[in-house]
Amino acid sequence: MTQTITVSCKLEVPPNIAPEIDKTLEKFADACNHILDTALMENVTNTTKLHHLIYKDVRGATGLKANHVCQAIRRVVGNLKATYRIKQFRPTSISLDARTFKYEEENQIVGVTLISGRKKFNLSIGNYQRGLLKGHIPTSATLVKRKNGDYYIQIAVNIPTQPPSHTPRTIGVDLGRRSIAATSTEKTWNGDKLNQTRDRYSRVRANVQSKRTKSSKRLLRRLSGRERRFQSWLNHNIAKELVTEAKNTNSALAFEDLKGIRQSLNKKPRSRKERRKTNNWAFYQLRQYVIYKAAIAGVEVVFVPPAYTSQTCAVCHHVHPEKGKSYRSGERFKCGNCSWSHNADVNASFVISQLSGVYVNHPEISGIVCQLEGQLSLFPMNYA
Ligand SMILES: [Zn+2]
């Protein structure tokens, strides 16, 4: 069994060559957009038919090489097969194949065919990436321009699926959405009992608060104490189970970054009921318990950036292309690209686990690539 991974390598691009790359990226995006328009207009989603229909026009109009156009058609067809389609391709990446890309292990360079012809680039990589690429003759890659203007080439390499034994497994833990916690080993802790309790307390509290007598104040204090103790007891138990499982399976535990979680939870206006469920000290406490118990048990705890973890497909890493929309619907996640469907919190925990796995085991890999768009959709570490 092998799995395709992408090895992300920074390209050393001389300043005078950068405009040539940019022009190639622009023409590739133009090509994709034109092909998409035509496919929709003519109602054609078949690669061969689309090729016959449009190949010559696109080559003439853009000046791209033959295989650039073939790749543009492939990318558009992939997009058309998705339930939710990208409406506009941006000039940030180009798909390359064996004719337009070559990795030369001996000199650690790549040859890339640009609109103006073949150019060679030095790779700015470390031993780890060299190790991943060693002995491979990769036949596909994606050239990406990042927001900060750096160019990267993501080289697709098939590697054995069994990870080396010295690398730790990671268990991803998603907190505070539908469930209190959900893990990538498919355990969930249902929030129903907790939420019922909280709702009951907050109803009573609302009642009492309107009275403002001395005895009602005392009752209020007692209520909050009882609520807190209940939560605390629950968190202790969840933390204990998480750490025990991690210890028994020799895994690290991975959470979303706390600072980020507050931001991501606070982004959208939420109902008061929902805010009560997520926006408080309870999840902070659970994490603190886990950190504490993990330290004693010798279990590693890893934090990953929370961006898109709940909205990304754990299988193909696609994110809903339309702003504000999500493949998440209540308890279910259903990917519009590959049709993967699963419990939404567990899907998020898979993504957290994968991200942390990359972070722990492959620090040189800078992100996880969306299979549809060929662009980095998730980053194990924050970078500017
Ligand atoms: Zn998917």
Number of helices: 10
- The CATH C-level name of the largest domain is Alpha Beta
The unique ligands bound to this protein are: zinc ion
Strand order of the largest sheet: 2-6-7-1-5-4-3
Beginning-to-end CA distance, first to last residue = 36 Å
Helix content: 40-55%
Mean pLDDT comes to 80
Number of strands: 17
User: Which runs of at least 5 residues are low in confidence (pLDDT < 50)?
Assistant: 161-167, 260-271, 273-279
Q: What coarse outline follows from CA principal-axis ratios?
A: elongated
Radius of gyration: 25 Å
Largest sheet, strands/sense/barrel: 7 strands, antiparallel
Query: Architecture of the largest domain in CATH?
Result: 2-Layer Sandwich
CATH topology of the largest domain: Nucleotidyltransferase, domain 5
Order of helices and strands: EHHHEEEEHEEEEEHHEHHHEEEEHEE
Structural class: alpha+beta
Structure description:
The protein has 384 residues and is α+β, with helices and mostly antiparallel strands. The protein folds into two domains: 2-160, no CATH class; 169-378, Nucleotidyltransferase, domain 5, CATH 3.30.420. Helix content is 44%, strand content 22%. It is built from ten helices and 17 strands. A seven-stranded antiparallel sheet has the order 2-6-7-1-5-4-3, sandwiched between helices. It has a five-stranded mixed sheet with strand order 10-9-8-11-12. A three-stranded antiparallel sheet has the order 13-14-15. α1 (18-42) crosses α2, α1 (18-42) crosses α3 (66-81) and α6 (214-248) runs parallel beside α9. The longest helix has 35 residues, at 214-248. The model is unreliable at 161-167, 260-271 and 273-279 (pLDDT under 50). The site of zinc ion (ZN) has 8 residues, from loops. Residues 313, 315-316, 318, 335, 337-338, 340 line the site of zinc ion (ZN).
